[in-house]
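Milestone 3.1: sequence recovery, worked example.
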């Protein structure tokens, strides 16, 4: 008889907008006891999931599952770097960007069932000023909105859109110099996004062609955002055709440096980190193993 699959679930009790679901009860209902041994551990503070994930990997769990949104996924993924354990996701955030990219079902019963019999795959890991990211990182307006969103008191797409519209009227671009491969160019940064996965979350496709295992980041630059272009960007994000819309410029590369004329905010996986004037962005190919639905195949051809 083969050994049972050992899974550790790390639950962020604060993530998402719907906290009515009783995750331990759903696990008991949908995980087959004959195939899986599991434990459930709640996080007690921001950053706790990094330590809990590292500890679970050291205890020999094969999969450590982030039960939350992209912030929780980032913490668990960070804790698992360099270990033998794979990252799993039970999407319970407000955006769920990485879960959506990896085609993890958004309905918890289905997501739980697939964890009992997953496929394993390796994904690239991005770094911005040494902070790992798995989905997207970025400078400028998206980071500024992440900071305001964190202070808003309520979460969810509605709050996010409200904050973005309010800040759109105030935000001004910053002059930057970008160096990648053998070219350097000066431009202006309204948004500079570094995409490992295709979307921010909520099916907002900032880089619909991004392949999470290709050893490359997709850079999306929006140098200014007058109203007509804001409309095209919004439609492009929703329809997944931003590259074809001409409202943003794209590059692919495995490392890039950015110097800003004044301090610029940056985010990793949707969480504001801080302000800086210099940014070093790199990619470590296939540095993290993830447990994905057995039918998962990279959408990009
Ligand atoms: N016990 C806790 N108490 C307070 N904050 C926590 C706790 N556990 C985790 N956090 C923090 O909560 C933040 C938000 O969580 P998360 O990103 O998972 O949810 P979300 O913001 O609702 O989803 P998404 O990122 O998909 O929009 C994370 O950055 C994490 O550091």
């Amino acid at each position: 008889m083969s050994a049972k699959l050992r899974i550790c679930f790390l639950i962020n009790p604060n993530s998402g907008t719907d906290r009515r679901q009783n995750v331990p009860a759903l696990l008991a209902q949908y995980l087959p006891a004959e195939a899986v041994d599991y434990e459930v551990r709640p996080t007690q503070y921001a950053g706790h999931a990094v330590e809990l994930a590292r500890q679970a990997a050291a205890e020999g769990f094969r999969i450590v599952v982030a039960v939350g949104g992209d912030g929780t996924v980032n913490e668990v993924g960070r804790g698992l770097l360099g270990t033998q354990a794979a990252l799993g996701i039970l999407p319970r955030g407000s955006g769920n960007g990485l879960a959506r990219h990896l085609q993890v079902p958004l309905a918890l019963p289905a997501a739980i069932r697939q964890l009992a019999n997953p496929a394993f795959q390796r994904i690239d890991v991005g770094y911005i000023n040494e902070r790992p990211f798995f989905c997207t990182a970025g400078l400028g307006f998206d980071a500024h909105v992440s900071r305001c969103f964190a202070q808003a008191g309520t979460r969810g797409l509605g709050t996010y859109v409200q904050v973005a519209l309010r800040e759109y009227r105030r935000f001004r671009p910053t002059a930057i110099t970008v160096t990648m491969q053998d070219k350097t160019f000066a431009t202006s940064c309204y948004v500079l996004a570094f995409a490992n996965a295709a979307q921010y979350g909520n099916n907002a496709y900032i880089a619909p062609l991004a392949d999470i295992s290709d050893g490359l980041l997709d850079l999306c630059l929006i140098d200014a955002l007058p109203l007509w272009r804001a409309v095209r960007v919004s439609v492009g994000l929703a329809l997944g055709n931003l590259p074809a819309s001409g409202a943003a410029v794209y590059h692919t590369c495995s490392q890039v440096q950015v110097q800003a004329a004044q301090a610029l905010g940056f985010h990793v996986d949707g969480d504001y980190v801080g302000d800086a004037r210099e940014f070093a962005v790199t990619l470590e190919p296939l540095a993290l193993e993830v447990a994905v639905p057995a039918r998962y195949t990279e959408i990009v051809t």
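The chain has two domains: 5-117, 131-286. The two ends are 39 Å apart (CA to CA).
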